[in-house]
Structures are given as C-alpha cells and as structure tokens.
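Input record (one chain):
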Amino acid sequence: MDLTTANLTELNTSYETRFNGGRDGYTPTHPRIAATVPSNGSKNLYPWLTAITGMKEFKGEVERDPFQLSSWEIENKEFYDVKSVPRTAILDDEYGVYAPLMAEMGEAGQAHPDVLLSQLFLNAFTEKDYTGKAFFAADKNFVPGVGKAGKFTNFFTKQLTADYFNDARAALVGLKGPNGVTINRTLNLVLVTGPELTKDALEIVKATTVEAGGQNVQAGMATHVEFPMLGDSPYWALLNVGHMTPFMVQDREGLSFTSMTRPDDPNVFNYHQFDYKSYRRFNVGFGLPQRAYGSTGADA
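The corresponding structure, as predicted from the sequence alone:
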C-alpha cells in the first residue's frame, strides 16, 4: 500500500471499525451491579452518603440532622493502550495481520471498568469506604466518628448456602438507619458470585425445587449475576441495586480510538511505526455499604 494520506485514512477507518467491533462484542457486567455516575471534573464528591435518614414528624420546628456531610470522593484516572504497526507492514500490504489487535484493544477498553470493579470487590473486605472501615465489615458507623448515629454490620465469613443467603437477605431487609426507619425499602436484590459459585447460586435463587424435594421458596428472591473476573474466589455478596448502589462506576471520558500516522509524527519519523491508541478516563468506587452484605466464604 502506498503511504498516501487517502490510503492511511482508509486504513485508520478500517482499524477503527475493528476496534469498535471488539468494543461492541463485549457485554460488561458492571451495569448490573453498579451505578454509572457521570463526572464533569477531576473528581466527584459524595456528601449525601451520610445524609440518608428519612422523614420525621414535624413538631413545630424543622429539626436538622446534626451529622456532618460526607467528604468521600472518587478521583478520575486515565487509562490507555497503544498498539504499533511497522511502517513496512503497511507498505508491504501486511497490515491485515494487525487488525485483530485493534479488535482486542476495543474489547479490553470496554472491559476495563469490570476489571477495576472486580478488583474493588475482591478488596472490599480490607479497603475502606466513607465510614473509615472496610466496605464489608462489622460494627460500622453510619456516620464516621458519630457513634450515637448507630452502627451496622454487612459482613460475615460463611459459605454460600440457602440458609446463609437467607441470613444476608434478612440483614439487608431488616437494616434500619439512624432514625429507626428501614433503609432498604425497595428491593432489587442481586446475588454476585464468581463462576465457581454459579451452580450453588442458581440452586438458591432460580431452581424451582430443592434437592431434597419440594418447592424452593427462595426462587426469585434475587437475580444471580456471574462476575467472570472474580475467578475461583469464594467471595460472594448480596447487593440491593437501584438509584443508590453499593458500587459506582464514575465516567468522565468514554472509550476513544486515535492514531498517529502522519509522516512527521515522532513515532513515524523516528521509529518507522504507526501508533493506534485507546483511551478512557473514569474510576470505580464504593457507594452505600448499607445496601450490600458480603462474605469471604471461608467458613462452613
């Protein structure tokens, strides 16, 4: 192929089409278990995390909550990937060999929120949230440093069984906030596991009968979401997803594809290679731990 502007433009379009095909061919998991939050700056502040208290009876004067607003924030990060195609490969009509790389780059870019979210999930038993304790932990303050606001627990170490699923569900349904009002009023429960626990999860929330015979009364109480990136982890969690969710994907700039193919571009001039780049700016983070109950699955 002659390295004319027209030919290189056509090649860029072809590569971008393959990139878009890879992107569109991947179905992300995160929309099913996390809220996608738009971002217009370098970070988002989430002051409302400590303001979930509910309504009060009016008794002559408006009583304001004495709790300080949360200072929890999620900072956006930049992510990229670069693939290089030798100048000689294009000149010698061997550029088609590199087309699958562009598709792979598109798929990887689309999947990256899932990569970060799976890491966050696996670290949620040690990594701190707005309460100052691990996201999944015992005796967490609703408001950091304010014990009078009450505490809650969203953690245990039990393996996934029908009984322990029921315990997690009961804990979420029965959880009351600082004002004594139920927090999880609307239930949209999602049971999240890795592939290793999929069979157990489906037997609990989807099978119509139990192994011993008779009706499965827990069928339909939650939707199972298999998160492949959790691998063989024994961790599992029951999430109540909706307008306020336990996890967030904060999106600043969507996935893009750019190229450097002009003869005077440094990569072309100095290294005789054409560069193609994917880019995305976003981050993931914790939302409301009151809407999640997680287990390490370590104990029977």
